[in-house]
Write a structure and sequence with these properties.
Layout lengths: L7 E6 L3 H16 L6 E6 L8 H4 L24 H9 L19 H17 L3 E4 L3 E7 L2 E6 L5 E3 L1 E4 L21 E2 L17 E4 L3 H12 L6 E5 L27 H17 L5 H9 L1 H7 L2 H19 L4 H12 L3 E14 L2 E8 L5 E6 L1 E4 L13 H8 L19 E3 L5 E7 L5 H4 L5 H30 L1
InterPro entries: FAD/NAD-bd_sf (IPR036188), HpyO/CreE_NAD-binding (IPR038732), L-asp_N-monooxygenase_NS-form (IPR052189)
Protein name: FAD/NAD(P)-binding protein
């Protein structure tokens, strides 16, 4: 890998939480090992501040972090860093609703975004990390160097490129294609202002029952929506809340490791039964699965990983990704007052008649077809990972050139255990790394923020080793 230690650059494409964490940990590790002087770290991100990304750039106050603040930190070796920052800034003094009944803080997501940005700000101000406020649109590799074209017309030349891009937008279910151009279809509920045109009395169908659906419903209720909301998913599963009393993780799923999806599922069920017999809930069992998740995933054959992604993932998601108590309360109140119903159903057809959208639903339990007339249909089915390579011009160009391939599990981009991107010819490229959730097909549990922080440390460490090797080679050649 030809690199000039006197004019070398690491380009991090994407400056949301993942990209910001990689930049922070890379600079920390380079500084600790004395390799920071000759290397330039550039983060390509159009947003004004690094660290916010899609998740933490929202200004909606009802959008809360989904775990208590003491489990959120950009520094894995300092798990209380965010909590300490909250205490130092006093930022929650004006937000009494941030606290759960037991006193645990669940700040608005924008607050966590401010925290993450604050940890990068000193490095940017000192010129140790460069923030290029633009978007990467293409990347080509020639003579071992990456040329990253950007929207502002000024390319970045880099020795190492890190893909820390965000999730793709949801893929529109094919059955909704007939209403694709209707004003009542909200195809991406996470886009800014997506719900602005929902009127207070609108009848709303939410397609999906996960965290995004919960955010949508809580947001609508907070803004005075009083119309009927129907939220559907194939199994009718709804995101679970947090336990009132926390316990240490319960269960060992590694000794020995499960080698099939069915074996793992049976083991989890048996462990939950044992936990309940001891007076515990399922929560500490799922916490143990989460903590051991990457090693559990590593032990499974690819075929079994596919089975989990296809069949078990919906159950995992609603138990693993729990909603903040404030959001849970908003949904419970809406159900109690009769303005929200959660159904196990799927869309069979969709058509429009003027301003009205006519949706045919098939009930999972009875098999009956129901006709639902609504004013808005909101799609919250989660990122369309199957179409990730076509979701951004940058990724499409890299895929067309053979630098990127889809992970066989369909959960993101193909990479090895060092996060090196694997090309369509099956070769790992140590100059192109995948950081964050888009690497979860290889690493497994890589959606929660603690795991993303740990993965950022891993990626930064791998790059630091590469840089150290190149610096030593340069020093040896100079003697």
């Amino acid at each position: 890998m030809p690199m000039n230690a006197h004019s070398s650059t690491v380009a991090i494409i994407g400056g949301g939480f993942t990209g910001a964490a990689v930049a922070l940990h890379l600079m920390r590790q380079l500084s600790q090992q004395g390799h920071d002087a000759n290397w330039r770290i550039v983060v390509i991100e159009p947003r004004e501040k690094l660290g916010r990304g899609l998740a933490y750039d929202t200004l909606e106050p009802v959008h809360r972090i989904n775990v208590p603040a003491d489990r959120m930190s950009i520094l894995p070796d300092e798990p209380q860093d965010f909590s300490n920052w909250l205490a130092e800034t006093g930022i929650l003094e004006g937000d009494p609703d941030a606290f759960s009944i037991d006193g645990a803080p669940f700040p608005a997501r924008t607050v966590f975004g401010l925290y993450a940005s604050s940890r990068l700000a000193p490095l940017i101000e000192a010129g140790r990390v460069e923030h290029r406020r633009t978007r990467a649109v293409k990347a080509t590799k020639n003579s071992g160097l990456w040329t990253i074209d950007t929207e502002d017309g000024e390319p970045v030349i880099a020795d190492i490129a890190v893909l820390a891009v965000s999730h793709p937008a949801p893929s529109l279910p094919g059955v909704l294609a007939p209403i694709r151009d209707h004003a009542g279809l909200i195809a991406d509920a996470t886009s800014p202002g997506a719900l602005d045109n929902v009127q207070p009395d609108d009848r709303v169908l939410v397609v999906g029952n996960g965290l995004t659906a919960a955010d949508v419903i809580a947001t609508l209720k907070a803004h005075g929506h009083r119309g009927q909301i129907v939220s559907i998913s194939r199994r009718g599963l709804r995101s679970r809340g947090h336990p009132h009393v926390t316990h240490e993780p319960y269960g060992d799923f590694l000794n020995p490791p499960s080698l099939s999806a069915s074996q793992l599922l049976q083991r989890v069920r048996e462990t939950v039964k044992a936990a309940v017999a001891e007076g515990l809930s399922w929560h500490p069992v799922l916490d143990a699965v989460r903590l051991q998740g990457q090693n559990i995933w590593r032990a499974l054959p690819v075929s079994e990983r596919r089975r989990i992604a296809r069949h078990v993932r919906p159950f995992w998601d609603v138990h693993r990704f729990r909603i903040a108590p404030q959001v849970e309360n908003a949904l419970d109140c809406a159900i109690a007052e009769g303005t929200l119903s959660v159904r196990a159903a799927s869309v069979r057809s969709a058509e429009s008649s003027g301003d009205t959208l006519r949706i045919s639903l098939k009930d999972r339990r009875t098999g009956q077809l129901d006709i639902l007339d609504v004013d808005k249909v909101v799609v919250t089915t989660g990122p369309g990972h199957g179409g990730i390579l076509g979701s951004q011009p940058l990724l499409a160009a890299l895929a067309e050139a053979g630098h990127l391939a889809l992970c066989p599990t369909g959960l993101g981009l193909l990479c090895d255990r060092q996060s090196y991107a694997i090309s369509t010819s099956g070769v790992a490229d140590e100059t192109l790394l995948i950081a964050g959730p888009l690497a979860r097909g290889t690493f497994g549990e890589l959606m929660g923020l603690p795991q993303v922080s740990e993965h950022a440390v891993l990626v930064a460490g791998i790059i630091t080793v590469l840089i150290a090797e190149q610096d030593r080679a340069h020093q040896k050649a100079a003697v």
